[in-house]
Amino acid sequence: MFGQEPKGEILVRHCTISLIDHVTLAADRAGILGQVPFEEGDEVAEKALVAQLINDEAAARLELSVSAAESDIGIRLAEKTRDVAEAELRQAELLNQTRQVYTEFEMRRLRLTLDQTILEREKAVHEQRLKSLEQAVAQAQLKSHDVVSTFGGMVVRVFKKRGEAVQQGEPLLEIASDKRLRIEGYLPVEEARLLKPGDEVLVELDGETPAKAPVRGRLRFVDVSVQRVTQEVRIWAEVDNTDRILKPGQQATLRIKAAPR
């Protein structure tokens, strides 16, 4: 169909074309769908919000945790109390240098009071750190209500509508992009030994005249094992299909330029 292959070129016929970027997005938790802003056929950007569960309670919890984490009243109060206790102890020590105003028991009580205020401040700092962690947990819980696209592409299927109940892990939308395609095929072991990932490939659709601007790509995978029945090795290449020349489901032939060994 393509004539005799040039020297140093390997032909892999009857290859299948499939999507690389194809994902079914699911809910991270159970809940009620508050919004599904996209329909089948809509284009979505990478990291776009494609669905969201009702999150009023989670948003309120986050607001409370932010307010608590930003407040340092406990630390400032503990520091003031510590400063007063430290001043009382220093004054007592100073007075006792000239004459015995405070008994040893009273001095021990003042030292104990200062130690307690120091520990109270450490406790306040620890509680503040816990509040910051609680804020991070609240943020994560709020974020778990969002379903975000992992890449830019087209919504090819919508499984749930706004107002419907969903369970954790239940599919919501299916997104696909044909900008990157996978061309997969099999070839004899002796030819597979000549290939390595990174080799340049040329894609030609089966049954069609070669395009004026052929689709080029790179070999991404050469299997380490051999098919038991056919004694062939599975390979696949990745091609840039930004011009939408190729379609998933078509068959093609790979021309691979084997790099010198």
Share in helix = 25-40%
Shape-level CATH architecture of the largest domain: Beta Barrel
How are the strands of the largest sheet arranged? Answer: 1-8-11-10-9-12
Overall radius of gyration: 34 Å
CATH superfamily of the largest domain: Efflux pump adaptor protein, beta barrel domain
In terms of structural class, how would the helical and strand content be classed? alpha+beta
How much β-strand is present in the residues? 25-35%
**CA-to-CA gap between the ends?**
28 Å
H-E order: EEEEHHHEEEEHEEEE
* CATH fold-level name of the largest domain: Elongation Factor Tu (Ef-tu), domain 3
Tally of helical runs: 4
Account of the protein in words:
This protein has 261 residues and is an alpha+beta fold. The chain has 3 domains: 93 residues, Elongation Factor Tu (Ef-tu), domain 3, CATH 2.40.30.170; 59 residues, Beta Barrel (OB fold (Dihydrolipoamide Acetyltransferase, E2P)), CATH 2.40.50.100; 86 residues. It has 4 helices and 12 strands; from the N terminus they run ββββαααββββαββββ. Helix 1 packs antiparallel against helix 3 and helix 2 packs antiparallel against helix 3. The radius of gyration is 34 Å and the shape is elongated. The protein starts with 8 loop residues before the first strand and ends with a strand. 20% of the residues are buried.
